[in-house]
């Protein structure tokens, strides 16, 4: 397997590389020290995962993430000192799969990477196209979504969230399960963050007022139609 880290601090690149060498020798690490080189490296190498800093010397990590999402759905973990809820939400809304704040534990980083990869694999099952409802169709092989026969562009997080709800059709998926399965056990985001993603998902599916994804107040969300 192959990982790309986009990070300007050599000490962090070296530490992540050592962590892989000792704990995950099958994972090779490629590094870029600025955003533009990082985007080019991801495009060239097509890695299995990207570790991305936000504070880069040339362009913002948010712009790097946006550029990557224009040509790849590779899982991206943001690794940064910026711990504001607004930055976390911005990163996840832009298509990041996880958000880790520095300083961090390297064993925890490896665990979070494995969790993201497992999640990605689980929602990329080699199944036939599946009609979830009369209005919604999910192509699990190509990770494509159609609502009312209209192709819907979703970020990776939005796609994983929709699949989680759709595969539990008719059942309430609690807030804590959504948080754990989409972002991992260690994610510190609030229920308000989940609500923001649901609102964006409903808007893209043209499910306003909501009929497909319904809130069960105080409990979670249920996919109904």
Explain what you see.
- There is one protein chain.
- With 225 residues, the chain is of the alpha/beta class.
- It folds into 2 domains: 2-122, Response regulator (Rossmann fold), CATH 3.40.50.2300; 130-223, Winged helix-like DNA-binding domain superfamily/Winged helix DNA-binding domain (Arc Repressor Mutant, subunit A, Orthogonal Bundle).
- 42% of the residues lie in helices and 21% in strands.
- It has 8 helices and 12 strands.
- It has helices spanning 10-23, 35-45, 61-69, 85-93, 106-122, 156-166, 175-183, 191-205, and strands spanning 2-6, 28-32, 49-52, 76-80, 98-101, 130-131, 136-139, 144-147, 150-152, 172-174, 213-216, 220-223.
- Strands 2-1-3-4-5 form a 5-stranded parallel beta sheet, sandwiched between helices. The protein has a 4-stranded antiparallel beta sheet with strand order 6-7-8-9, with no helix packed on it.
- Strand 11 (213-216) and strand 12 (220-223) form a beta hairpin.
- Helix 2 (35-45) runs parallel beside helix 3 and helix 6 (156-166) crosses helix 8 (191-205).
- It is globular and about 50 Å long.
């Amino acid at each position: 397997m192959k990982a790309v880290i986009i990070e300007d601090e050599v000490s962090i690149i070296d530490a992540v590389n050592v962590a892989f060498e000792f704990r995950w020798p099958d994972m090779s690490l490629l590094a870029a020290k600025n955003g533009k080189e990082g985007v080019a490296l991801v495009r060239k190498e097509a890695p299995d995962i990207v570790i991305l800093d936000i504070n880069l010397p040339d362009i913002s990590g948010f712009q790097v993430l946006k550029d990557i999402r224009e040509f790849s759905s590779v899982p991206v973990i943001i690794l940064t000192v910026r711990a504001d809820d607004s930055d976390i939400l911005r990163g996840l809304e832009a298509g990041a799969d996880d958000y880790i704040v520095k300083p961090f534990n390297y064993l925890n980083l490896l665990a979070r990477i494995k969790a993201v990869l497992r999640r990605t694999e689980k929602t990329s099952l080699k199944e036939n196209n599946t009609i979830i409802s009369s209005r919604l169709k999910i192509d699990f092989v190509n990770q494509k979504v159609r609502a009312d026969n209209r192709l819907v562009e979703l970020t990776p997080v939005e796609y994983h969230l929709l699949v989680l709800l759709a595969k539990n059709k008719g059942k309430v998926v609690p807030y804590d399960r959504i948080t754990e399965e989409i972002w991992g056990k260690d994610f510190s985001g609030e229920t308000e963050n989940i609500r923001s993603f649901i609102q964006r998902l409903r808007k893209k599916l043209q499910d306003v007022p909501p009929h497909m994804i319904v809130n069960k107040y105080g409990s979670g969300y249920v996919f109904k139609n």
